[in-house]
Fold this sequence. Notes:
Layout: H1 3-10, H2 16-24, E1 35-42, E2 45-52, E3 60-66, H3 80-90, E4 93-97, H4 109-123, E5 130-140, H5 142-155, E6 165-169, H6 181-185, H7 194-206, H8 212-217, H9 223-229, H10 257-263, H11 278-281, E7 286-294, H12 298-310, E8 315-324, H13 339-354
Parallel strand pairs: 3-4, 3-5, 5-6, 6-7, 7-8
Antiparallel strand pairs: 1-2, 2-4
Amino acid sequence: MNKQTEILEKIGICSQISFVRYTQGMKALGADQKLFIKDLCFEQVPVRIYQPKAPSASPRRGVMFFHGGGWVFGSLETHESLCRSLARGSGSVVVSVGYRLAPEHKYPAAYEDCLNASVHLMRNAEHYGVDPARISVCGDSAGGNLAAAVSQTLAGRADLPRLRAQILIYPILQALDFNLPSYRQNQGVPLLFQERAAFYVLQYLNGNASNLEQVLEGSHIPIDIKLNYRKWVSEDYIPEKFKARGYKPHVLLDCSTEVYETVKRFCEPNLCPLLAEDAVVHQLPESFILTCEYDVLRDDGLLYKKRLEDNGVRVTWCHLEDGFHGIINSFNSEWMSFSSGKRGLDNIVSFLKSL
């Protein structure tokens, strides 16, 4: 947050969170020549549906899209341009979900909204011109977390069609270790700082950022539990080339019972999908994972890629060597645009078209 928003909060005009949300929602795009765009509700969850106008001889692919923003920010508006590009580029029906945000609505509110909206599309696919056998979930950052969690839940549902794919764009997938190599190397790199990543996940879990210091230093989870999860969450599984920019292993710290009690749900896969059991991961659909070199969340994506591949799940991996967190949503921004963002988006569209 910047000084201006801090001043606004101190004089009582608005909170920093409210101010950022307001500015994010100010700009609206006009009509689209190639898409029908309509706001609806799926199971009381606001959604925006993007349907290609061009006639199709058969039902189209469906994409459930969950926006990023640390579970605190983001909206149907902030990711409007990206969703239009996905729908136009791949010829898919895209459903963007306006899930409830933290801190007002804590975990598992966002996850439940995304799950319920996805189930609605799967059960009513034909009504929206969608092939029920070709529905995927997609999300960026916190939205990638929600897509991974929804995908794991749906993998065990025998009463619904099987998801065709999951598309995870620099997802946040665990909250046990904020000192993996990518966190240490990129702790002060925009657009997501190490401290902010921990702040957001605490807002989602508890509606406040108490115990932020302990979460950042790693003294929020007992050592025995950390060691139990080291088979999945460890710098040992990060390829050496990603440690070349300098990395010193972090000393394991124990924690107090009081602190752990406030964050013990970090061990739930619906909040931290990287911690799901192999039996669940084994059932997951074909996957696309995008990571960026200059992103604190890079290693979350790398670790999940390994887990998926170890369990026989086909993974298409796109790594942007010059990319940073949030770059996909700025691929055609008026005030900053990056060629690697466009390259990442093209890779996502190509993957969708292959399904």
